[in-house]
Amino acid sequence: MSAGRRWATRAAALAAALLGAMPALGAEPGFPVTVSSCGQPVRFEAPPRRMVVHDLNMAEMALALGLQPRMAGVTGITGWYKAGPEFFSALGRVPELAPRYPTLENLLAVQPDLFFAGWYYGMQPGGEVTPATLARHGVPTLVLTESCIHTGAAKPEATLDLLYGDVLRLGTVFGRQGVAERLVAGWRERVRAAAQPPLARVPRVFVYDSGEDKPFTAGRAAMPQALIAAAGGTNALGDLAMGWGTASWEAVAERDPQFIVLLDYQNGQGPEHLRRVLERHPAMRLTQAVREGRYIVLRYAELTPGPANIDAIEKIARALRAPR
User: Could you tell me the pLDDT band of residue 29, with boundaries at 50, 70 and 90?
Assistant: First the structure.
């Protein structure tokens, strides 16, 4: 064996010995981690590098944590909602794979290593895109916690822990726990400040999403329940054991809401349309909120779990405390 070959052999042996004493290439401190997704454990050996996120509210969670470089795509944004230039600026070159609902083909085409979505937030039980169908292709799913009520019998009351918990979980998955904890701490402080001064009486607030024959609204398990409570009010339909769903106009009118949240959609059914529906309805036009024109206009991202929830709480709190 020549001297050159002997040197190469010794160098290879030394490199092998050094590698054997070191962590595996690409290992991340603090990993692996296991988090819960609708009660099911999901394990990550390292932070994902090609996450796909469905829906505006969840995309804003990811962007708030600085995860844009780890995103391979988003779905369900431009086909549904109003999103400002600041959102698209933060999104940068991350492509939208589908303007509304994603297909399995949409997702697999970008070789994702995580899908962040929810039941009826991009996934439907028995549909083409579910945690089970993605798992067959080696893609894990994190499910929005608020949406877990659709796969179980329990309909617990929504609290702000739905937002805080999902952001902290996402931070854990990407090794950004510190960033997540600082975000949540800042949000908690803003919520405490918004609830001051305490109200002598708790106003009733009705959430009007859409619908004319029957209103589509928020029950006790949907995020507005937590937002209204944090602002100092009570959800007029918070006694209904549901998340988002329909109710009867008679049930709403009987509760005589003092304020009404109108959802500002992009699809033509905007707040002015909703207001006209209320003012034409024989029972709703007699409610205190409609008689006095006490409306609070909020965007989709403000009413579904995400960073904009804190803006929504502040807006609701200001409206509830405004002079009458």
Answer: confident
Go through the chain and tell me how many residues it has: 324
Q: CA 75, CA 56: separation in Å to the nearest integer?
A: 8
> What is the full DSSP assignment across 135-183?
HTTT--EEEPGGGGGGGSS--PPP-THHHHHHHHHHHHHTT-HHHHHHH
- DSSP label at 239? T
- Report the half-sphere exposure of 173 (CA within 13 A, side-chain side): 29
Render the burial of 44-78: b for 16+ CB within 10 Å, e for the rest.
bebbbeebbbbbbbbbbbbbbbebeebbbbbbbbe
Please check whether residue 177 is in contact with residue 146, taking contact to mean a CB–CB distance below 8 angstroms: no
Distance CA 54, CA 76 (A): 6
Cβ contact 292:305 at 8 Å: no
Query: Cα separation of 52 and 209, whole Å?
Result: 27
Task: Output the six-digit token pair for 95.
Answer: 């492509």
The answer to whether 252 touches 206, Cβ cutoff 8 Å, is yes
What whole-number distance in Å separates Cα of residue 77 and Cα of residue 121?
A: 11
Contact 150, 125 (CB under 8 A): yes
**Phi, psi (rounded to 5 degrees) for 299:** -85, 165
Strands (E), the chain: 33-37, 40-44, 51-54, 71-75, 96-98, 114-119, 122-123, 141-143, 204-208, 216-218, 234-235, 244-246, 259-264, 295-299
| Each residue's pLDDT tens digit, 98-140 | 999 999 999 999 999 999 999 999 999 999 999 999 999 999 9
Partner residues linked to 35 by β-bridges:
42
Q: Residue 86 corresponds to which amino acid?
A: E
Spell out the domains of the chain, with CATH numbers in brackets.
Answer: 33-186 (3.40.50.1980), 198-321 (3.40.50.1980)
Tokens found for residue 318? 């200001």
